[in-house]
Amino acid sequence: MKPVELINISKSYDQEQHVLKEINLTIEKGEFFVLVGPSGSGKSTLLRMIAGLEAITDGKLKFNGKLVNHLPPKDRDLSMVFQNYALYPHLNVEQNILFGLRAKKIAEDEQKRRLMQTTEMLGLSDFLKRKPKELSGGQRQRVALARSIVSESPLCLMDEPLSNLDAKLRAQMRMEIKRIQKKLDLTMIYVTHDQVEAMTMGDRIMVLNDGVIQQVGEPIELNNAPTNLFVASFIGSPK
Ligand code: ADP
Ligand code: MG
């Protein structure tokens, strides 16, 4: 049984038709799957459909063999990290991280255990009482990551989580995210428009352009045997 399967998925908005066209894709358990493509190619739309934040126009979405097209987001056992982190400004780091667990009424001592473990892993232990505005960009990004990790969801979706960071921090956080993903054996679907990020992080990569899959493969396959000119130039050209 595969954690995530997309079968002939298409998406149209009222104002914009055919944003995604017949997407077929199977994600393996524990794999770091990267969705890469230029701005406007449909990456966020696809991720939001998997999260249940966007309706599916056509096709089937399955989790572990079960059809989930109409399952509400809260009942999908997944976590999501957004580009802008979406932290609550009036809550401190600890409250931000535990927000979802409190909503789910997870027992206090279990919350504490997860909080300790996660903040230690991400180097946030000294910042628990700070508000988001008292943190650097990198620390805020770590809080968003921590909030997703504490959910202990086996499936994690990330939409350009590093795009607000400077180059040095971005490189460091790539390693960090990879390390945690492997350690916790998470199934990851990671969206980026940055081909370097895609090539360094992905076990497999899907290249999307204009809502159409161009190629799916391991980094080395995309590099050595691009299926078309778009993939060759997109993967080949540095940012
Ligand atoms: P990406 O994340 O790859 O930049 P998006 O998924 O955000 O791409 O957008 C893909 C296309 O769908 C774009 O042309 C965008 O304008 C359009 N689009 C995205 N969201 C909406 C929406 N809510 N309503 C109408 N069109 C949208
Ligand atoms: Mg996007």
Structure overview:
This protein has a six-stranded mixed beta sheet, sandwiched between helices. Strands 2-1-4-5 form a four-stranded antiparallel beta sheet, covered by helices on one side. With 239 residues, it is an alpha/beta fold. The longest helix has 17 residues. The chain is built from eight helices and ten strands. Helix 2 packs parallel to helix 4 and helix 3 crosses helix 4. Bound molecules: adenosine-5'-diphosphate and magnesium ion (MG). The site of adenosine-5'-diphosphate (ADP) has 12 residues, from helix 1.
Task: Spell out the key features of this protein.
globular, binds magnesium ion, 36% helix, 239 residues, 6-stranded mixed sheet
How does the SSE layout of this entry go?
Layout: E1 4-11, E2 20-27, E3 32-36, H1 43-51, E4 58-63, E5 66-67, E6 78-81, H2 93-103, H3 108-121, H4 137-150, E7 155-159, H5 167-183, E8 187-192, H6 195-201, E9 204-209, E10 212-217, H7 219-224, H8 229-236
Parallel strand pairs: 3-8, 3-9, 6-7, 7-8
Antiparallel strand pairs: 1-2, 1-4, 4-5, 9-10
Helix pairs in contact: 2-4, 3-4
The chain binds adenosine-5'-diphosphate (ADP) and magnesium ion.
